[in-house]
Amino acid sequence: MGMALPILAKGFRGVYTKICMRMLALLLIFPLSLFAQSYYPSPSDWAQQSIYFLVLDRFANGDTSNDDLGKGEYNPEDVDFYHGGDIQGMIDKLDYLKSLGITAIWHTPVVHNQWLSPTYGRSRYSGYHGYWAYDFYNVDPHFGTLELYKKFVQEAHRRGIYVIQDIVVNHMGDFYSEDGKVLVQDGFPNRPAPPFAEVEKAQHYFNFNGTTLYTRGFGNTLDDLKTTNPEVRRKLIDIFKFWIRETNIDGYRIDTVKYVEREFWLEFIPEILAYARSLGKNNFIIFGEAYDYDNLVAFKLDEADASVAAYTWQGEASLFPSMLDFSVSAAITKTIVGTTLAGSPLNREGQPLPGRLGSFQLIADRFRTEVNLLYSAQAVSQRITFIDNHDMPRFLHATKANGDWKKLQLALLLLYTLPGVPQLYYGTEQGFVQPRARKGTSWGSENRQNLWDSGYRTDTELFRYVQRLNALRTTRSELARGWFVPLLVDGPYGNLFVYRRSVRNNQLVVVINRGTMRQRVELRTWLPQGGVDLLTERTTGASVEVEPQSGLVLAPKQ
Ligand SMILES: [Ca+2]
Ligand SMILES: [Ca+2]
Ligand SMILES: [Ca+2]
After folding, report:
1. Is 148 part of a structural domain of the chain?
2. What single-letter DSSP state applies at residue 42?
3. Closest among 248, 54, 16, 254 to 147, alpha carbons compared
């Protein structure tokens, strides 16, 4: 503008200036309406979406120049260190995800992390996973820049894919000792960044004394933010408004929810949701992780449901719009492979202990009225369901012992045809089989392998199967919003599970045979004319033979 003005005629220049001033005035008067137009709208219904959860450092490496930043944090041979995955990689592989048929990405935190833990030391563990924040206002240089992240969100939206960012408000990295001294040895970076940088205010921002796992700290050495302090609350609310405003994301997955006091959520959640609404995002999703490990291990799924669902209420109003549903994960695993990955009892080699198969009633119970009523009306149909994630052994780890890929397909069939919003953990579509824990221990990063090791194949039976399930899931309203009615639970040999998903006059009947014998199922009562299996396009009669370890998704024959 300044370059062009001198060559304009004098009179024209006055008019030009006037126009500029008017445009400026308009901008000052209508900034909010302009913003509202430029933000990507929320989906009308999250229950129609299909989520893909990826570990950013392990999904795709689009820029090798940012892999090793020279502090000893990069080691592709060790799963506990940075491996090189980045934002450019996510952009490069959007078409791969589009072809898989997913409609939303949940990625691990993108914020600048503490790269090395001063407590674990250089030889033990790095912040590749994103859950050890150093600077809440910047992107980790291993992943790229804020500008590149904005481009990623834009490119995802261009393909009709929503972006859900993983965030942590409970803690940051490990910068202070238990008595509040700065730990300078060996950690990088070794001081938190603004707005929590002032060392003299550390007592104000963090809990130090007598760190207890459940109410104050997490992981013992990570610095627990003093979320009871109004100033800390304000800073955290500002941070997570910033990310919505700047990057146009569509939702948050919130880590370690149970380690933050309820009063914090009563303030944080409504204000973030209202802010998203003010930008035109009327259905911004927030789902929390409250991993009720003790009840899951004890297989007390009703109790686990109750503790998780409590986060979706605030008196009569709703609070968290959704939560991760660990009970469904446990129930599917127990019925298909006999172990519970959510609880994952492990033997010394880190192998889940084998157990007896559970009754399909375990699954049906997760959606019975008494459980549904534990959730807010908003959250009940958009609970995030899954069969595994980055905190548990991969589903195939438990089934691989039997050489049995079919069990994974059965579990996925359940996941995509039961109520809830299905979430696939990256690598499942490539048949990844790793346990969670390192040999001889009960924890580690073994289940977070590089997806690039798979070659991103799209021609395998497993990939195609997930494609078909996604296509069904995202196009059939029966599966997104339909009533769930169990029709046959267990059957004559305990191996059959038949249920209906229906919305208005449309219905689908899902038939599962987990046994190793072919089994005949009478469908006369539910599908008198027989049906069409939407997975294979095969038509059936009212009585159908179901192959061993397989399932059907039947639409009534027209
Ligand atoms: Ca890289
Ligand atoms: Ca806390
Ligand atoms: Ca610490």
Report:
1. yes
2. P
3. 248
| Closest listed ligand to the CA of 66 | 1
Q: Which ligand is nearest to the CA of 202?
A: 3
Residue 391 has pLDDT above 70, yes or no: yes
Q: How close is the Cα of 227 to the center of ligand 2, in Å? A: 7
- Give me the chain's average pLDDT, please: 89
Give one word for 553, left, alpha or beta, with left for phi > 0 and alpha for psi -120 to 50.
beta
Query: pTM to 2 decimals?
Result: 0.91
- Indicate which ligand has the atom closest to the C-alpha of 452: 1
Using left for φ > 0, alpha for ψ between -120 and 50, and beta otherwise, residue 140 falls in: beta
Cα–Cα distance between 517 and 490 in angstroms, integer? 14
CB 456, CB 449: distance < 8 Å: no
Same domain, 318 and 360: yes
**Domains in the chain, number:** 3
Query: Looking at the CA of 226, which ligand is closest?
Result: 2
| 243 and 123 in a common domain | yes
Q: Is residue 213, in this structure, part of any structural domain at all?
A: yes
Range of the domain at 316: 50-172+224-482
Q: Does 131 share its domain with 240? A: yes
Q: Is residue 489 part of a domain?
A: no
From ligand 1's centre to the CA of 322, what distance in Å? 32
Structure-block tokens of residue 339: 């172990």
Where do the DSSP E strands lie in 159-213? 162-167, 206-207
Q: Please report whether residue 19 resides in a domain.
A: no
Distance 184 CA to ligand 3 centre (A): 11
CB-CB contact of 341 with 387 (8 Å): yes
Say how far apart CA 208 and CA 464 lie, in whole Å. 51
| Whether 343 contacts 327, CB under 8 Å | no
Residue range 300-344, pLDDT digits in tens: 999 999 999 999 999 888 999 999 999 999 999 999 988 877 666
> Looking at the structure, do residues 213 and 352 belong to the same domain, yes or no?
no
Q: Do 301 and 215 share a structural domain?
A: no
Looking at 426, 449, 482, which one is the last position of a domain?
Answer: 482
CATH classification of the domain holding 122? 3.20.20.80
- Contact status, residue 435 vs residue 351, Cβ threshold 8 Å: yes
CB within 8 Å of 350: residues ≥ 6 apart = 393, 435, 436, 437, 438, 439, 440, 441, 442, 444, 446
| 464 and 537 assigned to the same domain | no
Sign of the torsion angle spanned by Cα atoms 34, 35, 38, 40: negative
**β-strands 384-386, 51-54: how paired?**
unpaired
pLDDT at 350: 60
Backbone dihedral region of 530: left (phi > 0), alpha (psi from -120 to 50 degrees) or beta? Answer: left
Residue whose token pair is 């997975």 = 535
**pLDDT at residue 30 tops 60:** no
The band of 181, judged by pLDDT with boundaries at 50, 70 and 90, is confident
Please tell me whether residues 309 and 346 are part of one structural domain: yes
| Tokens, residue 513 | 């045979």
